[in-house]
Amino acid sequence: MDLRKAYDTVEWGFIEEILSDLGFPSHFTHLVMTCLTTTQYSILINGVPTPLLHPKRGLRQGDPLSPFLFTLSMKYFSRAINTVASHPPFRFHPRCKLLHLNHLCFADYLLMFCKGDPKVVQLMFEGFATFSSSTGLQYLGVPISPWKLKGSECDIMIDKMVARIKKINAICRSFMWFGNFDDSRPGSVARDKVCNPKACGTMGFRKIVLWNQAATDWSQFIASNYASWVVSLVCMVKKKCSGKLQSSEWLNKSRYSIKEMYSDLSDSQPKVHWHNQVWNRISVPKHGFILWLYMLNRLNTKARLFRVGVCMDNLCAICGANEETILHLFYKCKFSTNCKTSII
């Protein structure tokens, strides 16, 4: 289980109450609550800060005190779940019975163990509900139920996974073109043309969705008539892989290679003759990146930017005499000519 926005949803009233119940001095509790309740935030909108915002709950990220306060919250969770274990109807998981273990915690990740009986699972759920209502911490993911989950009930988890993959793609694209993680402007080269082998004239990045499919050895999954929706979904992807490859011979291989499967699933692209001159161990990565854009005719020269209305003129920023095209910038500009002459 994963707790949703763990630090942001802890109730201040709960923190004050648990500090008092654990016997901390009232003066110390007052100092801690002063640190929490005097927090203020301001949001930048179009570069202009908003008036100060005063939150009503949550722990500050990066505050040295926050991890200790959150640990106290999770201590309450341990007590609540241990109390559940003391109820007569409760039964431990067969593998955890000797240890009397029914939960583990690591930061905001929880593992809960019990016998797979609806009544026992319901007890565990009630214990967590008590913890959630007291602390404000909630479960992130599929619904908790003592019954077998339907595929439709897991849509929320699938949506979150898809959203996470899209977010990762967006961060990679933004960092590649603009050096940060939250820039929504389009890059000079389309994402699909970036995610191909370098021999095809691209950056050699991998497509996350396709790599995720290739990273699982689908051959071990066989869906029976009574298989769960998870196994059925995995086997459906296996069929798609066989359809993409137009063969099922890969299922009979003694050794499964993620790299080979990813290469087979990727659409074949024509190779270029210049990729070794651009991507090699000798060239500086920044210089290779510029040369790659040059080969694709995607450098943001002033002539290119002028056509889309970004700059006021298209004259060369160095000599100011001619239109700044790629040809002029690298070969015809006086500065470029002098550089080549001095080097040669």
Report on the structure:
By secondary structure, the chain is mostly helical. The chain has helices spanning 12-21, 26-37, 66-85, 118-135, 155-178, 191-194, 208-214, 229-245, 258-265, 275-278, 285-295, 302-307, 326-332, 334-343; strands spanning 2-4, 44-45, 48-49, 103-106, 109-112, 138-140.
Defining key terms:
Reverse transcriptase domain-containing protein, two-stranded antiparallel ribbon, 6 strands, RVT-Znf, two-stranded antiparallel sheet, 344 residues, 14 helices, flat, 46% helix, mainly alpha
Overall residue-averaged pLDDT value: 82
Give the topology string: H per helix, E per strand.
Answer: EHHEEHEEHEHHHHHHHHHH
Shape: flat
Low-confidence stretches: none
Tell me the span between the first and last alpha carbons: 64 Å
Task: List how many beta strands DSSP finds.
Answer: 6
Structural class, from secondary structure content? mainly alpha
Largest sheet entry: 2 strands, antiparallel
How are the strands of the biggest sheet laid out side by side?
A: 1-6
Strand content: 5-15%
Number of helices: 14
Pfam family, one: zf-RVT
InterPro entries: RT_dom, RVT-Znf
Protein name: Reverse transcriptase domain-containing protein
Organism: Spinacia oleracea (Spinach)
Question: What's the layout of helices and strands?
Answer:
Elements: E1 2-4, H1 12-21, H2 26-37, E2 44-45, E3 48-49, H3 66-85, E4 103-106, E5 109-112, H4 118-135, E6 138-140, H5 155-178, H6 191-194, H7 208-214, H8 229-245, H9 258-265, H10 275-278, H11 285-295, H12 302-307, H13 326-332, H14 334-343
Antiparallel strand pairs: 1-6, 2-3, 4-5
